[in-house]
Amino acid sequence: MEHESEAPAPSRAARTATFAKRALGVEGRSHRPSVSDRLHGDEPEAPGLDGRETRQLHWIRLFGATGAVLMAVGALGAGAQPVLQNPVQGLRILGLPARMPSATLSMAMTGTVMVVLAWLLLGRFAVGSMRGGRAIRQLSRSQLDRTLLLWVIPLTVAPPMFSRDVYSYLAQSEITARGLDPYEIGPAGALGVDHVLTRTVPNIWRETPAPYGPLFLWMGRGITAITGDNIVAGIFLHRLLALAGVAMIVWALPRLARRCGVSSVSALWLGAANPLVMFHLVAGIHNEALMIGLMLAGVELALRAVEGTDPIRGRVLLLLVAGATLIALSSTIKIPSLLALGFVGMALARRWGANLKALASAAALLGVVAIGVTVFVSVASGLGMGWTQTLGTATEVRSWMSIPTLLGLGSGLVGVLLGLGDHTTAVLSLTRPIASLVAAFITLRMLVAVLVGRIHPVGALGVSLGAIVLLFPVVQPWYLLWAVIPLAAWATRPVFRVPTIAFSSVVSIILMPNGAEYQPFMIVQAAIATALACLAIIFLTRHLLPWHAQQTTAPV
């Protein structure tokens, strides 16, 4: 009996191609849950709160507002005050906090914990419990907006907190206003070490060029033209820019959430009302507020055109170009937001057929917009393209929140303990490039997933930015907002929300309000005072606030 001949084994090239397709997620559907399955689920809006819950919401709102006021008052002595031109120095009453550092640190830390606790309590009326299911009742959008506004107002009039970066902004803006190149020379060299603006810049940044894009320094030059060397006025106008960015986040986030089938209230609670936003974008005055705000607003406008049913021409095409323009503008503040344009392009290519021609057409259209906006801002601002050479300035800092940096520091410490020497620099030269390749691969896979329709562009953008942030050589707490805010509009599973809520709460509490370090004994004293004060407050409000778990969710 003759046997049928066996099929020839696939060639090495065929096996390699198959492996690459599977790695990129284009070779059929896997039986394993996808990223979208693990992180995303539809979340419908829920009815409003009942009478008892509305009363509790009122007390939660006042509890958080009291914490914000304590933070603002404590910042008069424990905040990131300027070395010169401190407006409260020498005043009889307002200058008192500066003469009581331990007390004001305790006050600021107590207020910080109160705001975080209020945010967590508010979450029960926004997302319910973290055990799955859906919220039985939710606070309304207007209730959440009023709560957020009430908590933000005290921080808008407080001195800078948690960071001294705003003083670098002011110095770099002054350099730009003098017609010098901020991408070639740092504040000390351009302004002099004794200049009023240089004196408050942290020592590590006094000699370094600006790491920010030309749009931000262009706006900073306008602020300098108005305020001159007046530090307080400059801080106020920079905070207005940050508030404008937060306003764009509040505008775009619920719209993107509805586009993803997610409750707008839960997205705003986790994204815009997050303590990291209030403490670092508002109180800390970081330019991430403008970057993220412009990026999200651009994504919303672009997806409104791409995901609509009308042909992409005329008004719809203008809407797409406007969205792409906003994204490109955000990248001229900080470059990572340009990634959003790639996901918009993949969504556009999918609508046009998801083939090579569609991909090339989408890339050409959005590429022209991105290049045109970047060149225009660089030339019109007079700053040129030198900003592309200083993007790695921040990598001088070794951050424990960065996975590759933490691995390098840990390996170096082990080597020292074993008597093998400190090889931290050598290990970092390996871990950081490997981490960059991993982040690039995750981003590429997410781009392909959008093209083939396996994940929504907003979710893919958030996952990619999350990978980039965690695998970046330097991670500051507010960098996490690059990923947390877009993911708040898409990721609803506990596997995302629980760690995000926990990390946001812990990091918001442990950072010092002056953006630097205190003596250990002062931190211990303030921590003990904060713990005792918060325990007393919880005891006194045990009948007013929902400290005990309540039934806030129902099975899906």
Automatic annotation (TrEMBL):
Biased composition (Low complexity): 7-23
Biased composition regions of type Basic and acidic residues, renumbered to the chain: 28-43
Keyword Glycosyltransferase in record: yes
Transmembrane spans: 62-84, 104-127, 148-170, 231-253, 265-286, 316-346, 358-380, 400-421, 433-452, 458-482, 494-512, 518-540
Keywords, ordered alphabetically: Glycosyltransferase, Membrane, Transferase, Transmembrane, Transmembrane helix
GO molecular function, one term: glycosyltransferase activity
InterPro entries to which the protein is assigned, alphabetical: MptA/B-like
Superkingdom per UniProt: Bacteria
Main location group: membrane
Subcellular location: Membrane
Region of interest (Disordered), ranges: 1-51
Pfam family for this entry, one: MptA_B_family
NCBIfam families recorded: MptB
Similarity remark: Belongs to the MptA/B family.
Name of this chain's protein: Polyprenol phosphomannose-dependent alpha 1,6 mannosyltransferase MptB
Species, as recorded: Rhodococcus parequi
Lineage of the organism: Bacteria, Bacillati, Actinomycetota, Actinomycetes, Mycobacteriales
Record gene name: mptB
